[in-house]
Design a protein that fits this description.
The complex is a heterodimer of chains A (126) and B (367).
Chain A: E1 7-9, E2 14-18, E3 23-27, H1 29-35, E4 38-42, E5 49-50, E6 55-61, E7 65-69, E8 74-79, H2 81-85, H3 89-92, E9 101-105, E10 116-117, H4 118-125
Antiparallel strand pairs in A: 1-2, 1-10, 2-3, 3-9, 4-6, 5-8, 6-7, 8-9
Chain B: H1 8-13, E1 17-21, E2 24-29, H2 33-42, E3 45-48, E4 53-58, H3 62-69, E5 82-88, E6 94-104, E7 107-112, H4 117-126, E8 134-137, E9 142-148, H5 152-158, E10 170-175, E11 178-183, E12 192-198, H6 202-212, E13 219-220, H7 223-232, H8 268-277, E14 281-288, E15 299-302, E16 305-316, E17 321-329, E18 339-344, E19 347-354, H9 361-366
Parallel strand pairs in B: 3-13
Antiparallel strand pairs in B: 1-2, 3-9, 4-7, 4-8, 5-6, 6-7, 9-12, 10-11, 11-12, 14-17, 14-19, 15-16, 15-18, 16-17, 18-19
The chains are: A alpha+beta (126), B alpha+beta (367).
Chain lengths: 126, 367
């Protein structure tokens, strides 16, 4: 099963991947493509808590700074140090190597209601 | 309504990302801003800059009229030469910046910013009284293609160009059997050419340049890289670094203004006073000391005090650092080597004041 079959996507182009004990959050390939060359990613500290929809990171592309929102409420467990050093990883591989944070969800499942499966998300974009 | 250049369909066919810029639907990038940028520094890039404005000033008082509206000395401009100019209002603030080309006696061509064509025409019309001149806005009939980079000259030679042109000069010529103006100007900090043709020739010329340029690794370049290229070269962008409340002295453009110009011109009183005694604010170059990116309007601090704001900021692909230009209070201590702070998302980030342009021929060889 490819990774895009397992993720849920927000309308603001973040994805959520459910793993054993946590969620992995990143940017969709569409978002990365739109941003163009990514040169800097500002990530939160582990342990910080965010509500669904809050800005938890900022991605700087050559063109502009873009805020990244939490697809669900959660506590940051881990941030991807690779992209702090090599932000271009996001352009190259936004799902496997270029994830942003791993979170422990703090909200309930109703927060997933407005997230879309990848196929539906792609359709929405057209 | 958003306007399209005659090359619009070419950009779309090349897969460019299109954006609205100054009322025009323009390519911001074809592949990657960084790749396009580097290719202009190393090889050659092709830009569609047909959104720019072209205005002819013709008539027996053309020189006198131009001398009235710019601080530069138009009397010193000889046939076939060009000069970088500003268009100040009566208080010295800038309505636009432009290049004026002297085509021949009594005939001048102004190339100005797309976003300012209407304001420029309006301002020139207001100043026209008493001068026997004709203002002829040809922007809608002309396309402008820029060929920029160290290999631009090789490509031009391959196309049959044989003229020996200095920087900031213009000739009328036939290239590929197309009548055109060829000027040795640009907005990248590289050697290069700008080719001005009537719209009907634009597509053919574009295709030819891309095809014949293959052996020189030509790439089409969008507005994204145009912005990063001009920032590295510390060339001001109207609307970011220049506006009606900023004088050319404040903008660090004193080098372009002759101190001995006899004729009166709009804003002369303020501009000459500032040339002598300094201006309340000054433009500085900044290099971020961490990976953060300074952007337009971010605040600048020095020793805890807010002293100004960033006007242009972004990435320097050549330096692999982030750079910016900012206006700050004209304090002596804020000079090359000093460290200031830029407020980015409520945090202060250190930035070093550095010389402009950010890149020179020398540090490019090193990088």
């Amino acid at each position: 099963m490819s990774i895009t079959e397992k993720i849920l996507c927000s309308k603001s182009h973040e994805y959520l991947l459910e793993e054993d004990e946590h969620y992995t959050v990143g940017l969709t390939d569409y978002a990365v493509e739109q941003l163009g060359d990514i040169v800097f990613v500002e990530l939160p500290e582990a342990g910080t808590e965010f509500k669904k929809g809050e800005t938890f990171a900022t991605v700087e592309s050559v063109k502009a700074a873009s805020e990244i929102y939490m697809p669900v409420s959660g506590k940051i467990l881990e941030v991807n140090e690779t992209i702090a050093d090599a932000p271009e990883t996001l352009n190259e591989d936004c799902y496997e190597k270029g994830w942003l944070v791993k979170i422990e969800p703090t909200g309930d499942d109703s927060e997933l209601a407005d997230l879309l499966e990848y196929e539906d998300y792609k359709e929405e974009l057209e | 309504m958003v306007k399209e250049t005659y090359l619009h369909d070419k950009h779309v066919a090349l897969g460019a990302k299109m954006v609205d810029f100054a009322g025009w639907h323009m390519p911001v990038q074809y592949k990657s801003i960084i790749e396009e940028h580097k290719n202009v520094r190393e090889n050659v890039g092709l830009f569609d800059v047909s959104h720019m404005g072209e205005v002819y000033v013709v008539g027996k008082d053309a020189e006198e009229f131009l001398n009235k509206i710019v601080p530069q000395d138009i009397s010193k401009l000889t046939d076939g030469k060009a000069v970088y100019c500003q268009l100040p209002n009566r208080k010295g603030g800038l309505i636009d910046d432009l290049i004026i080309y002297k085509l021949r006696e009594n005939t001048y061509l102004i190339i100005c910013n797309a976003s300012r064509v209407d304001e420029d025409i309006n301002w020139m019309s207001l100043n026209q009284r008493g001068y026997t001149i004709n203002l002829d806005n040809q922007s809608h009939n002309l396309s402008l293609l820029a060929v920029q980079g160290p290999k631009a000259i090789d490509l031009m030679h391959k196309l049959g160009y044989t003229a020996d042109q200095d920087s900031f000069s213009i000739i009328e010529a036939n290239l590929l059997n197309i009548p055109m103006f060829i000027s040795r100007t640009g907005y990248t900090g590289e050697d290069g050419f700008e080719l001005l043709v009537i719209n009907e020739y634009a597509e053919y010329l574009w295709d030819k340049l891309l095809a014949e340029g293959k052996e020189f690794n030509i790439m089409p370049v969008g507005l994204g890289a145009r912005d990063t290229l001009r920032l590295e070269a510390a060339l001001p962008l109207y609307g970011n670094d220049l506006d009606e409340n900023t004088t050319p002295v404040e903008a660090g453009l004193s080098w372009s203004i002759p101190k001995d110009k006899f004729e009166d011109y709009n804003g002369k009183k303020v501009i000459t006073e500032q040339l002598e005694n300094g201006a309340p604010k000054k433009l500085i170059g900044l290099k971020m000391l961490d990976k953060s990116v300074a952007r337009h309007e971010y605040e600048v601090y020095y020793k805890g005090e807010k002293v100004g704001a960033v006007t242009s900021g972004g990435v320097s692909p050549v330096l692999s650092a982030n750079i910016a230009m900012a206006y700050v209070k004209n304090i002596k201590e804020i000079c090359t080597g000093a460290v200031v702070q830029v407020m980015i998302r409520e945090k202060l980030h250190d930035a070093e004041v550095v010389k402009r342009p950010f890149i020179t021929k020398r540090n490019r060889v090193k990088s």
